[in-house]
Amino acid sequence: MKDTNSTTDSPVPHEQVDQLTSDGFLLLKHFDDSQLVASVLAVSERRAQAIRDALGGRDIGIGSAAGFEEIVQRSPGRWDVPISMAEFGLNDCDLPWWSLITTVLGEDAEHSFSGVVSSEPSSPAQFWHTDSPHLAAEHLGPHAINVMMALHDVPMEMGPTECARGSHFLTNHLSNPALKIDELVYQHLSTTPALLAKDTDHHEPERSAKSLAAGTCLIFDDRLLHRGLANRSKLTRHMAYFSYRQKGYVGNTHFEAQRSVFDAAD
After folding, report:
1. Domain range 16-245, CATH class
2. What pLDDT, in 10s, does the model give residues 80-133?
3. pLDDT digits over 222-246, tens only?
4. Distance between CA atoms of 218 and 204, rounded to whole angstroms?
5. Closest CA to 216 of 154, 146, 158, 131
């Protein structure tokens, strides 16, 4: 995985756009504002604890439809808590990846949602999945991009995100009838990098995962096959995320719950 650099004041390097286009992901390792990273971590921990306290002992299943508006269990022990940019005290256009986002998605790119994903100790690896499906049988440019920022050092034992390089070209259920949309977007045991290449002329996508220093950002196409690895450490892993979309794109698989943790218990 190639390291890259970016600033909000200079043009986006062609290498970044090329890598995101070809591999479906890239790392930005320049984001070394330790004070800002610490602030995002503090907000994330505070908000996540408040939501877990409000949840109490109520049961919560796996997946967005089984969760609440304020919290989703993406896989066992892996909690997703949405947090607005106002709560974070951030502005998208001031962030160092914004120029890349607008270069790829268009100057009118929109913020979709943001928050924190926390992986508890002993949480298992996720099943491979995409975050949204392709929109046409032919391969189009991305309709959504995600930025995941490490809020502390994330060694391999803490389970960083693993990506299947170039898999965004192969996850198109509209051009490959062997693929099932629900098994791509909703985590399923049968969905693997090997499945994407089965009975095709393509090679199985290479798997890539690296330890992350605090402030490192993983940026990836929403259609990329990826998964969070198992947290084998004794500490909770926190990753903030910031998701963006082309103007007019509407997805419905990220947060589907119609109930709130602040409603009266069932």
Report:
1. mainly beta
2. 999 999 999 999 999 999 999 999 999 999 999 999 999 999 999 999 999 999
3. 999 999 999 999 999 999 999 999 9
4. 22
5. 154
Residues forming beta bridges with residue 47, ordered by sequence position: none
Query: Which secondary-structure segment (H or E) carries 116?
Result: strand 110-119
* Backbone CA torsion sign across 216, 219, 222, 226: negative
Tell me which residue of 218, 203, 27, 230 sits closest to 122, measured CA to CA. Answer: 230
**Structure letter (DSSP) for residue 3:** E
Q: In what order do the strands lie in the sheet with 226-228?
A: 207-208, 161-164, 226-228
Residue 2 predicted with pLDDT over 70: no
pLDDT of residue 33: 78
Query: Which one-letter amino acid corresponds to residue 32?
Result: D
User: Per-residue pLDDT tens for 31-83?
Assistant: 667 889 999 999 999 999 999 999 998 889 998 888 999 999 999 999 999 99
The residue behind tokens 């170039």 is 166
SS3 label, residue 243 = strand
156 secondary structure, DSSP code: G
Which conformational region is residue 14 in: left (phi greater than 0), alpha (psi within -120 to 50 degrees), or beta? alpha
- Record the tokens describing residue 167, joined without a space: 């898999």
